[in-house]
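Supplementary notes for students who missed Thursday's class. We covered one full example, reproduced here. Read the sequence, then the structure, then the short commentary at the end.
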Amino acid sequence: MKIERKIILSNAVNLVLIAVTGIFAIQNLNSMFTKLRFVEIADDLNATFLEMRLSEKNYFLYRDENALDDIEIKIQNTQKVIISVKNDILRAIGAENVEQLEKYLASYEVAVKEVRKKTVNEWEMEQWLRAAGKNLKEFSDRITRLERTNINEIIQNSKWAVFSSFFAVLLSVFFIGHIVANSIVRRIKVVEEMANSISRGNFTKVEISIPNDETGSVIQAINAMSEELKNREEQVIQSKKLASMGILVAGVAHELNNPLNNISMVAQTYTELYDNLSREQRIEFMGKIEGETERIKGIVKNLLDFAKPKEPNLVMSDMNEIVKKTLKLVQNMLDVSNIETRLNLASELPSVFIDENQIQQVFVNIIVNAIQAMSTGGKLAISTRRGKEEDTVEVSFLDTGKGISQEFLPNIFDPFFSTKEEGGTGLGLWVSYGIVKNHGGNILVESKLGTGTCFIVQLPFYRDKGEHT
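Structure (token representation):
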């Protein structure tokens, strides 16, 4: 389900709960207002009934006929009031109680008329009238008390119902919101992990169940982007390798001149002295030429191996040998740049599980950067050792160059970021970082402006069954 629909559905559920609570509260309020209206009417009626009883007493005490007239007038007025507000009274106390009230009022009216006619003896008339008045007043008082009690019950029930409904809505909002939020957060975390993985240089497509919502579209887009970045990374790695090779060729060209000059000199001498040379001397001359030729072949082979694109080929390797092989590629550049190299290679290092060609590219890139940072000469110390974590092999490159400003250090592995004033693409360290990360390793950098920089490459050593950390 789409995230938008989940949010709409959760809001709809909450709105329904709020609407139900509101309807219930309105019904209770209407019921309470109806009963309050009856209580107001009943209070007026009770006051009228009380006045009737007082007039009744005046009649029997003073035989005042006007008292009976007053009672009859109040009975008629009461009947009119009951008729005018009958609907309100019916809603409040029901038809049965209304009929009973009208019956008691009619009985009291009949009793008043009979007293006026004096058809029976005085004592019986008094008892009859007093009984009818008492029944009317007691019934009215009882109904009034009952309705007041009902009002209190409605108020109490409404209070607890509204209170309960309020907390039910709160719980619904919390739980439904929590469920929807968790669902969204879980998917966002997947997207975040994928983005972090890509930022670390891991462009492997994530194989997960794609949710049918907005995050699913994002995950598919990230997977497509990751696959495209992986293809682009391979192209960038190769192009950067070729660029590095171009830098190397400039230095190697000078190195090739030495054996070529030696071959030329030997050949000229051999030609001039050929007739005076013995067989052994001729073989010695040819041996020198062959040795210089092998030296040239070795230089060219290293360049071709470095430049040739290869599929990643993880093999158990000796880190010290990789360092030595890399130095052969860049040694002439170091010599030309007047850079003194010091090697400190630890003995009995555990083997590493790497693609030798890719790691060699990383080392060449770091050394070339060091050479460019020491334009007027300097020192480069290369060391190998077992890592502090006891499961890695570390190779450090410490130069005495101009260093890197602290503000730039967090960004040096970002693509297209370069501290070089001109000529820097900003891809070398980014490519190197990706290669090392894909090997399960890490690159650390420490630098102080004006003092130098130290790059530390950490790679997991070889474990049984070809596993590496």
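Commentary. The longest helix spans residues 122-199. Confidence is low (pLDDT under 50) at residues 465-469. If anything here is unclear, bring it to office hours.
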